[in-house]
Amino acid sequence: MQANKRFKWTTLLALAIGICLLVAGCSGNNGSNNGSNGSNGSPGSSESQQPSQSGADSSPAASELKPVKLVWYMRTAEPTNADKVLAKANEIIQKEINATLEMKWVEPGDYVQKMQLVMSSGEAYDLAFTSSWSNNYFDNVSRGAYVPLDDLLEQYPDTKSLFQPGILDAVRVGGKLYAIPNNQTMTNYVGFVFMKSLVDKYGIDLSTVKSGTDLTPIFQKIKDNEPDIIPLQTGASFVFDPVVSTVEGFAVNTDTGEVYDREAQNLDEYKLFKEWNEKGFFPPDVATLKDFEPLLKAGQIFSFSARMKPGNAAEMLGKYGYEWVDYPVSTPVINRDAVTAGLTAISATSPNPDRAMMLINLVNTNKELFNLLTYGIEGEDYTKVSDNHIEKIDGTYRVSGWLLGNVFNNYLLPGQPDDLWEQTQKANDSALIDPLISFSFDRTPVENEIALINSTRTQFSPILSNGLDDPEKILKQRDEKMAASGRDKVIAEIKKQLDAWRASNPQ
């Protein structure tokens, strides 16, 4: 990134980030696409986007390697035709790095709990999807769950060249890299997506939506006239509000250095979510519903908050079979949460970390393998209509590319423009850079307190964002529990480390 694109410390980030989005891209998202809701983007140069077809880099020849099996935990339900696709993928993997791959498919709603059990048991596995919003990367690094990758990455310049140094710095903990970003859109750029047929049917003018309250009459219209349609998937905090940087979920005012609990000050928005719940705008079982995919595939959700990116609506058309309208409400920014919205880590229990890194590199650089793992087998799962365009066959294999790695390898879907990747590159290059992107907070002095605080957030955030109870009462309970969990101690430690970092990193 160019130095003149960085914010000065005296400039507030005039940005809106839905804390429940990051999600792919990140994602008030649907079930399997939470956090990153997409499969494109890259922070590297235009030249670095072109994947190597060999995927070899400096790896030894496959014939020189002993055969091994690699196990990869993936945050998605097992897709149709998975066994056949994986068998074909293993033909490439075996030829290139003399390994075979076993995918462990886990339903999105079960992924966090499943990975906690896997890690606590000491189970031997090789690779896993991790992120800032699911299977929390920073928590897992603190537990010693992942292998440091700096030395391994040096052996694979093709993969390393996908990322500018500042991007990799966003993933470092204590100066070390414990995961490789899945090369996609690197911007936090959020808003809402709406079912196009209903927007057109009721002549909804989305340009009038400037705040959460502007959505109320729109949702009411859908509720009154479409009894089988749910107006909004879930509540999404802070989508319309300016925000500053965050560290461990606490907001930082980059003018003053103040560190504070932003959720505690969000009463008005939580009151709005309570109103929406009472009006029936959310799914009736929103309190317990883990997977929204069946509702989305059935066309029963009118809108949800999502991470924006070029080609988003076209991708969703391909996934769900009907048209959507994007309505972004924020300015693009690249921050630590955005970069860590999709990562691939190598487990500390991996019997073959070197070979696991070879596989990461191969997936990132071999276009044939990447599209096979994403879209399946040509003629069975999709039809190729040009060199770089395909049409998916309904009900067949599909895995979101942002779960796997370098999505610039991906074929384009119907409706996606020929210059999709160029658009994404432009968005990444023009995005504002969070001044704290390279600040790595050392959790060690307050590790126990952070664990308690994150547990408290997990307990109260769904209640507040979905309007499940009186927000004044819940915020009071939350405040008491956050205080008991060590909030003030953590805030003081963040400020102490930030002050020291700012002193040695003048902007």
Which CATH first-tier class of the domain at 48-183 and 340-370 and 400-409 would you pick?
Alpha Beta
> CATH H level of the domain at 48-183 and 340-370 and 400-409: which superfamily?
Periplasmic binding protein-like II
Average pLDDT number: 86
Low-pLDDT parts are: 1-56
Radius of gyration based on Cα positions: 22 Å
- What CATH architecture label of the domain at 48-183 and 340-370 and 400-409 applies? 3-Layer(aba) Sandwich
Topology, number of strands: 19
In one word, what is the shape? globular
Helix share, percent: 25-40%
| Strands in their spatial order, largest beta sheet | 4-3-5-16-8
The number of helical segments is: 18
* CATH topological fold name of the domain at 48-183 and 340-370 and 400-409: D-Maltodextrin-Binding Protein, domain 2
Largest sheet: 5 strands, mixed
In terms of structural class, how would the helical and strand content be classed? alpha+beta
